[in-house]
Amino acid sequence: MFLTPLCLKLRDVSFSFLVQFVSVLLGVCSSYIFRVYCHLPGSSSAIMRFKQMQPLKAPRKNRTYSPTALTNAVKAVKDGMSVRGASRKHAVPMQTLRDRIIGKVDPDCAKTGRPPVFSKEDEIKITDHIKRFAQYGYGYTRNEVTMLASDYGKRIGKISKPLTRNWMEGFLTRWPELKPLRVRSLELGKVRSALETIVSKYFKELADVMAKYDLQDKPHLIFNIDEKGVTPKPTPSPVTGGKDKAASPTITAGKLQTTTMIGSGSAVGMAIPPFFVFAGKRWNADLIKGGTPGANGTLSENGLSNTETFRFYLENHFVKFAPDRSTQPLLLLIDGHASHLSLGLIEWAKSKNIIMFILPAHVSRILQPLEISCYGPFQRMYDDEFHKRIRTASGTVNRYNVCEIACHVYLQALCPQNLISGFKKSGIFPIDHTVIDRSLPIPADMFNTDDNSDDNSDDNSEDITVDVTEDVTVDVTEDVIVDVTEDIAEDVTVDVIEDVTEVIVETQKSESEAECSENAC
């Protein structure tokens, strides 16, 4: 009785629908039975699992258009074509084209991803700066280029954190004319840089700058800045003793960190008060206690001058004592130390009407006035004054006495006579390249060969050894002897004998004689 209505309804169902329903039902049941069997204990699921081949990754179809097509599309829109029409004509995505039109993305940007940190004009400045100073002999490494760009980016407000090596790789990709080059060793560079041709080119450029800005008869507007390392443990002065006895020991201070002194003077004989860079992180006014009027200082992590300290010196110390530059620019001669070559610092100097003229690499001993006539006497007088202070002082001599001692010597070493002599003997004022000692560039003539011979004899060039003595003293004037060596040997150990009283008694006569000679000088 109950099956009769059901059979009547089934009769109305299409035969095809019934077949589909049964097939789906059987498929679901078989799939369920398969899954249950695979999870049974002891079943070999490895045999039952179907292994498919590794699917191949479909190639990406991003950026199928060329940079030329994008440029032509942007130009077509600017000429009056619609964005949709230009997109279809040049096969460029419409959103990509629209971003260039509304200014969201730089039209010159032809690469995907984030835009560069610097604009094209900023990167042109960095590139020109790198290539120009490479011609002067001050090439930058990858890390130095990154530091240079980081400092410039902070100055113009583009970045707040230092750039990384990834930026450097992208920068070299955008500017293929820049590439890392192999350089020769430092000692070979010193010899080659002293070639007469380089010195002659330097004087020609200096003469052109002085003529352009009308500085031939204005020595009060020509300055030289240079750093000098001042250590609390100077080289002991020679003493006189018996021939049959060993050298007498002397008392020195303990080993302390080096302090950098920044000095400056003009061709007219005007000296800027000294500026000191001490090692440390917290400033203490006692560090410059006892200094001469105008002396000042700052701190760095290791007591050496860097970009920040040198900029602080120029902005807060040098311009305070330099002559007025409202109507006439000031010529500033500096060496190519990394702290002097900051792009932001050069931009600041231009805004203050200061011309920064870079000396050729590794020739400061013959072209820098402070090196020629001032820092040699400064080192000798500083050593004598330091040892005199140790013998007469009741306590120890530490870095808090460095400023007082150095300022006392600074006034004597950078006196008008020495400054005028330094600018004259370096050929800067009056400008004259013939006053340079021609015996200095002679050792470099052996390297002044043709380029073909250098390329064909690379193996033989490695066997050449150039013995450059750094401890040579050059007689520049009749009264001034310039000591080329700046660095003080720190590995010299002086033993102090137990009976110090006898040493003091024996050296009292030599002290009085030294004082007399200094006063006479």
Sketch the major β-sheet. Answer: 6 strands, mixed
Beta-strand proportion? 5-15%
Domain tally: 3
Helix content: 40-55%
Q: What is the top-level CATH class of the largest domain?
A: Alpha Beta
Q: Please report the distance between the alpha carbons of the first and last residues.
A: 142 Å
Q: Which spans of ≥5 residues are poorly predicted at pLDDT below 50?
A: 42-48, 441-521
Strand order within the widest beta sheet: 4-3-2-1-5-6
CATH topology of the largest domain: Nucleotidyltransferase, domain 5
Supply the CATH superfamily name of the largest domain: Ribonuclease H-like superfamily/Ribonuclease H
Number of strands: 8
Average pLDDT confidence is 75
Number of helices: 22
Net shape: elongated
N to C succession of SSEs: HHHHHHHHHHHEEEEHEHEHHHHHHHEEHH
Q: Based on helices, strands and strand pairing, what is the structural class?
A: alpha/beta
User: Which CATH architecture of the largest domain?
Assistant: 2-Layer Sandwich
